[in-house]
Amino acid sequence: MVLVHPIEYDNEGRINYNPDFHFAHGKLWTEEELEYLCKFIDYDGARAMQYSLGKTEKTIRAKTNDLRKNGKFWYYKNLNRHW
To answer: Does pLDDT of 1 surpass 80?
Structure first.
């Protein structure tokens, strides 16, 4: 894979948005992505999941926190429709 865009990091060592890695940036979350996120975030972590989901680490952490706060995390974790 040839990277077209240089990799830049924020102050906390996270990769900033890069179209070479974050192909789904700005797109709505699908039910399949939400189920995947909730099932595997505790095993893989946001840093690794950014490559499979195509969203930034910061976005993944924010979505996970939002789902937990709104009581939807366990719904998607136990959905068993896609994963």
So the answer is: no
Question: In this predicted model, what pLDDT tens digit does every residue of 21-64 receive, in sequence order?
Answer: 999 999 999 999 999 999 999 999 999 999 999 999 999 999 99
Contact 39, 82 (CB under 8 A): no
The residue written with tokens 């195509």 in the block is 54
Tokens of 21: 């890695």
H or E stretch at 50: helix 31-53
pTM, entire model? 0.91
Among 2, 36, 5, 10, which Cα is nearest to 22's?
5
- R_g of the chain computed on alpha carbons: 13
Closest of 63, 64, 62, 57 to residue 12, by C-alpha: 57
